[in-house]
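quick one, three chains, predict together pls
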Amino acid sequence: MFIRNHWYVAAFAEQLGPAPLARTICGEAILLYRKSDGGAVAMHDGCPHRLVPLSIGMVEGDNIRCKYHGMVFSPTGRCLQAPGKGASLALTVERIYETAERYGMIWVWIGDAAADPAKLPDLPWLESPGWAQTRESFSIACDHRFVIDNLMDLTHEAYVHPETIGQTELMEAPVAARREADAAILERFMPDIDPPPYWAQMLGKPGRVDRWQVCRFTLPSTVLIDSGVAPVGSGGFGGDRAQGVTGQVINLITPSTEQSCYYFLIQARDFALDADAAMQARFNAAMRRVVQQDIEVLEAQQAYINAHPAARLRALNIDAGATYARLMMQRATGVKADSTFAGPVES
Amino acid sequence: MFIRNHWYVAAFAEQLGPAPLARTICGEAILLYRKSDGGAVAMHDGCPHRLVPLSIGMVEGDNIRCKYHGMVFSPTGRCLQAPGKGASLALTVERIYETAERYGMIWVWIGDAAADPAKLPDLPWLESPGWAQTRESFSIACDHRFVIDNLMDLTHEAYVHPETIGQTELMEAPVAARREADAAILERFMPDIDPPPYWAQMLGKPGRVDRWQVCRFTLPSTVLIDSGVAPVGSGGFGGDRAQGVTGQVINLITPSTEQSCYYFLIQARDFALDADAAMQARFNAAMRRVVQQDIEVLEAQQAYINAHPAARLRALNIDAGATYARLMMQRATGVKADSTFAGPVES
Amino acid sequence: MFIRNHWYVAAFAEQLGPAPLARTICGEAILLYRKSDGGAVAMHDGCPHRLVPLSIGMVEGDNIRCKYHGMVFSPTGRCLQAPGKGASLALTVERIYETAERYGMIWVWIGDAAADPAKLPDLPWLESPGWAQTRESFSIACDHRFVIDNLMDLTHEAYVHPETIGQTELMEAPVAARREADAAILERFMPDIDPPPYWAQMLGKPGRVDRWQVCRFTLPSTVLIDSGVAPVGSGGFGGDRAQGVTGQVINLITPSTEQSCYYFLIQARDFALDADAAMQARFNAAMRRVVQQDIEVLEAQQAYINAHPAARLRALNIDAGATYARLMMQRATGVKADSTFAGPVES
């Protein structure tokens, strides 16, 4: 059910050091660690000898030593040392994964095709001056596609996040979904509205605003949300953001098992660049609070589906963005219909 | 395996208010809440849109609003509001359940036939002056039929409840089981005995007593126990209870899953009518203590059966009451033999 | 998958008294208790009447009384008392197990053949003057064969137990495995080495030593490890241990379920015979610490195998001892190949 031959985020760069880190990505048990030159290593998390996870072992220089019998494996999975005289060095770690470190994240290539650096997403805001960021990672006990549904949906904010980013106008403004060759897009433009509390504070200017939200899904499981406000008529919709404030919310969802995933969330912003530690801490706390509200719903959704295996999600017109994303995922896995999705329904 | 087209207790009346209450009854996920006029609503606990339990949502007036996208459903399951412009209101909640509020309890009708008010049990002691009551509810991790077995059994008290309601005479007095058209009955009369501590205190008179216990099972899962003592020869057995004290123990067991149930227990009494708060608290504490003793045994029984799926309950002559009740339940479900019950065994 | 018609340890003698003790041995639920004469009783842990574990009941004299209806069963499983007048005494406990108390342990015979006292292992150090002992028991959440693999392996000490019994020489000294008619043997002799900290302290003499380790597996799941040091050339290898110190480590592994076991560990020693309570407490603490290190690895190994059911253990030359033991176990169960073991692999 997982989309292969793609990069998935295994960790934020700062989460990986020389200590072993265990992840399950697309159902595959993976050990990660950093070599002495800082390069990231990813390999199957099991000793080929007696089937103990290598992640309970010890990193020694560039290599990993199994906790059980002390076998040492190189970053390429070759056995460098084995117990006993004349011991076999023929055992190798089952699988080595290509890694990439980019945008402050460790990416792992899942699939049998050669790793393709060009398939990393383009996230310029994470490498450009004039942008700051807030980042948090989460583990969620749900099918990763439910997180994508949630992000490709511009109507739930009013109910799941009423006190932060939701506002009544969200229910009233028309939402448009469309497809590009390699993306599903959902967008909403709200001209001439009162800004919600968060955005009013970030803009720091009185008066009504134009507000926009543009969600863009790309394979395998990336959702970029371009979101912001600008004074009415100042050009925010047209691309001239000079008078407004813009957030680029980067959502990277890594499937773990069929019912669990990792969620790496970064909000890049072109405002509040000089946020002090206290303000940055508030940004992080707000991000965690918003995601916790989503997690409550997503895990309840998974529990419902577990108890009702024959139930199928229904899609209304507001779900067009999520539906387009689901169809892209279905095509990418070659699965005609996934187990939870009934397909688009006219509303 | 559940008996359908019957009323089951979902909650004591005081347990249901305007906040959503989630129950699983006979395997069905049900949301309950009270409308503004106090009427009870029961419906399938899942939003037909994205499969989130409605019970994590918000009751607004008479309606329930889904936590995820804010869809509003009426007590009849009709969609009154949906997100987005021109949104579909065609989705309906999968199932609405008939409810009844009677005897201080909320009853839900499970089944496809029309709800039949006449099938509510007759519990006059809960509506008559001259009777007080003690009530507690429990969740038990066992097949609900084990609770019925336990209640249709007048021999376990000596061992499970030795310090409260048990006494040696219980082991010695003959127990008689018989069948009526719509009931299984188990009864024991103990003439001219010393009363056990609880009953001696409640009677408040010195001397020996006649003690009676009459258990009556009716479908789907109700056990009424008429129990009391009266001075020897004063007519307690014959129905003249004027000199004695009587408890009507009303046991209502609601199947939840195949291995769990709710147990609503009420002891109506024609004595201690003026019990003050402290005495009433002692009655409740005693009730909880007795049931906890049963729960310990019942959950151990379920654990044994889970570990030994081929094992079958055996029935001795003392189990005749429970056996008659089991046979009534088998007939009602159309199941020839249930998975745990070997059928009656001569003793 | 369990080897039947053998004795298994159910408890250390001091762990069994008149109170009921529940064990699952080779998948069988067993109740144990001591009679008034101190004799051990073992029987199926379930009342034949209503399927409640007898181990929640009460031992009365030599008999066990079921908690539910008070049925009393004798040590032979016969019903001595049943509830109700004229009650049936025909029900019997499903199975009685032969027990033996020897070497300070309670043994239970698992199998349909007659219990054979001659099949108890020979453990003279537990009955001889001149020997003291340290004993601990453990429950481990892994296939019991992983514990045997671990004990028939003289290479893991350096990595799993580096600070206690491990030392570099262990990696360098040749290990020899061989088979006798009824045993698999793994041995290592390390002449003229510096003793590791533990042994240096126990020997209490300066200078280099000869160190030996001889592991002997016998069916069904016993591993005896003869281990010690003696001054270089003083005869320790040849059997004259007079100048040295010897530990006889007795490892008795009792399968519980397919993924859990009990581990009874005794180290008999011919040194430190006058250890005071504080020193003995240190021995016990050290034993628990060493085993906890093994348990960490063993439970991780089980978790890996659960997540990778198709994976197979590989055997290098260092695993020859464990491999011989596995082959003996396979032959004893009549299973051609067990689910986790790929068979011997040339190294």
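The CA atoms of residues 253 and 263 of chain A lie 5 Å apart.
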